[in-house]
TrEMBL record:
Signal peptide: none annotated. InterPro entries: HisKA_7TM. Residues 3-189 form the Histidine kinase N-terminal 7TM region domain. It holds the Pfam family HisKA_7TM. The chain crosses the membrane at residues 54-78, 90-109, 129-153, 165-187, 193-212. This is Histidine kinase N-terminal 7TM region domain-containing protein.
Amino acid sequence: MAFVTFLILSLSGFFFYKNSTGNSICKAYALMTLSSSIWALLKFLTQFDFPYGLQSVWVNLIPIPTLFIPILLTYVTWNYTRPTDSSYPFTFLMVLHGVAILFFLYLALTGVLTPFRLQNGELIYRGGVSYFVACFYIYFSVLFCLGVLVRNIFRGDYLLRLRSIYMFVGIFLGGFFSAIFVVVLPLAGLYELSHWGVLGLLPFLWFSWVPIAKEHLFNTELLDFKQDLRNPKFSNAIIFINRCFLNYLDEKSFKEVCDKYEAEQRKILMEITAKLSVDQLANPSGFRLKMNSQVEKIMNLFLRF
């Protein structure tokens, strides 16, 4: 099943990156997905009896890919409000992550960090202090990012709050799901299911990648109330949800959006009505044809074709 997890993560990362703008934040998402998929692949490789102690090498390498998730998550959290103009976080944070990664890399390469050991060719969960310290580093980074998002939810403007909600839900679900399978269940003796923990990245991708890879759904599209009846898309559902959030989080702003939309529609309808009146007086015989063309314009105000 570890190989299935590897395939799911690899295909998900490829799908999301292919359908994104390919900016630096999307690349960070892709790297997080790649790290998790490599973790699952290493877990899969340990099931085979490789010669010359190669199986032990796979066991020691298992923790390494996930060590890069905190710094990538910090980078995403730092830049999710400006995906097209990203920058590096504070130097202190980058140095802190760099030192932690180098320290845990050393422990992993020396065989101290891995939570597993081989016993008669069988993979056995052993835990270990260094492993739980690494878990603390990873999940503390997750909590730190969640704290930043909570602050933005309560202090930012509407668009910032909206993006922060998506990010918070994604990171929270991803962190909670992975903690259950990577930390809690192994302590209960169910370490065989630990490879499912990296699938927690999927809800993280689905919720948090959307406001970054599909940024237009969080800006001008909110002013477009047209309904596409012939070509329903997933993005239409996102726009509808965003409007619900807007109405709940900032009723005044939502009213302003609606008033602006209605004013634009009223202006266009008045222009069409005036033009029809003039055409009827100028050319009564061709009025029916003119009216049909104007009806199409009126329908286009409310429906997409």
